[in-house]
Write a structure and sequence with these properties.
There is one protein chain. The chain is an alpha+beta fold. The protein has three domains: 159 residues, no CATH class; 79 residues; 121 residues, Heat Shock Protein 90 (2-Layer Sandwich), CATH 3.30.565.10. 67% of the residues lie in helices and 10% in strands. A six-stranded mixed beta sheet has the order 1-7-8-6-5-4, covered by helices on one side. A two-stranded antiparallel ribbon has the order 2-3. Strand 7 and strand 8 form a beta hairpin.
């Protein structure tokens, strides 16, 4: 299937709880004001002191027990239980002062200890930077007092102001960098916040919207090309045959032969029109279901297809349609480009996810920019699904779509 594939993956769009926008998407919370964030930074220094105190009071006595195999497990449980309480405090701080609302998911003990140790170190450095900032404020006050008393000459004043401004810039820059580090460590431990998930969702929707519009235009051009290059040519030939038959031909036998040719041509036109209609939307999906629609794909394919269809219950209409087009496009690519001798199609449901897999034994080496797979990416992504395409040079080519059914 090298016409339209390569090793690519569509990632699913995350589901974010929250209030709804007019379009149905949840709304992200506004970012907290700067004073609130500054208070959160200061509080982070205090929680870092608590973390340091905890590692000194609890970590030092438990250290030897962690080295002894018999007591290692119990000592580790005791150490992580206290670390989880301090980590919960950090999570509360990020939520209240920075507006980060993290998903509720379990965090391994090793991640908890690693986060608390790194957070303690970063918080202590932040405290040092804040201390330098406070010390600079005191020096600035003394400078103003000296200037008021007239004990400071112009050259010394300029030197002090320039030096103080540079140090202030570096101090503030350091605080912003440390706050960004704090946010990154929280993300790595607790997962991305709801605001970040929402921004990712917005970006995905913007990309998906553009891709859908492009896919619609591509599909229209394909239909126009199929009708112009195929059906229209046959209708012209049919009209010419009927015109010759109407004039009677030279003999009755010749007229009968022309009518028979016209009849055969009309059947071919109907077959081609049916093919075009099936590529737009297969009516068998509504009338007979997904299994029969896929059987129609197998009948029209020039390559033998082995189908493993195992579904015990009906699927949502949107999922059935996406599954059909995944199989149809993959089979079409294999027949056109892969030089395959056999195609295997598997349609199975694993929990709430429908997994559709199409594999051929062709030459592989597929290209990711093909319009067919680009359309499949958009179709599967619109359902929050994932599309995997594996097509190494020499084959085989495997296309796997994971479609959520919930």
């Amino acid at each position: 299937m090298q016409g339209d594939s390569a090793d690519t993956t569509i990632q699913p769009l995350p589901t974010v709880p929250g209030t709804a926008l007019p379009g149905g998407e949840p709304a992200a919370k506004p970012a907290p004001a700067l004073p609130l964030r500054a208070a959160g930074v200061f509080l982070g220094c205090l929680t870092a002191l608590l973390g340091l105190l905890y590692f000194v009071v609890a970590g030092v006595p438990l250290g030897p027990l962690l080295l002894w195999p018999r007591t290692r497990r119990r000592a580790f449980v005791v150490l992580t239980s206290g670390a989880r309480r301090l980590t919960a405090l950090e999570r509360w701080r990020r939520s209240v002062f920075f507006g980060d609302s993290f998903p509720d998911r379990p965090v391994p003990d090793q991640h908890i200890l690693r986060y608390l140790a790194a957070r303690t170190y970063a918080g202590l450095i932040t405290g040092v930077v804040l201390g330098l900032l406070a010390f600079g404020a005191v020096l600035a006050g003394l400078l103003v007092a000296s200037l008021a008393r007239g004990t400071l000459d112009g050259r010394e004043l300029v030197t002090q102001v320039v030096l103080g401004g540079v140090l202030l810039f570096l101090d503030v820059q350091g605080l912003f960098s440390l706050e960004a580090l704090d946010a990154r460590m929280a993300r790595e431990c607790f997962g991305p916040s709801e605001r970040e998930l929402m921004q990712r969702r917005i970006d995905e929707l913007a990309t998906s919207r553009a891709a859908v519009l492009q896919a619609v235009d591509t599909e229209r051009r394909r239909i126009e090309r199929d009708l112009h290059d195929g059906v229209q040519q046959r209708l012209v030939a049919l009209a010419m045959l009927l015109g010759r038959a109407r004039r009677g031909g030279r003999t009755p036998e010749q007229a009968r032969s022309l009518v028979e040719q016209a009849h055969k041509e009309s059947q071919d036109v109907l077959t081609e029109l049916r093919e075009v209609a099936w590529r737009v939307y297969p009516t068998a999906l509504d009338n007979l279901g997904l299994q029969e629609a896929l059987a129609g794909v197998s009948e029209r394919c020039s390559i033998p297809i082995r189908t493993d269809f195992a579904l015990a219950e009906p699927l949502p209409a949107s999922v059935e349609t996406a599954a059909y087009f995944v199989v149809s496009e993959a089979v079409t690519n294999a027949a056109k480009h892969s030089a395959a001798t056999e195609i295997q199609v598997s349609v199975r449901k694993y929990g709430p996810v429908l997994v559709v897999q199409v594999e051929d034994d062709g030459v592989g080496g597929a290209k990711p920019e093909g319009s067919g797979l680009t359309g499949l990416h958009s179709r599967v992504g619109a359902l929050d699904g994932r599309l995997h395409v594996h097509s190494p040079s020499g084959g085989p080519t495997t296309i796997t779509a994971e479609l959520p059914c919930a």
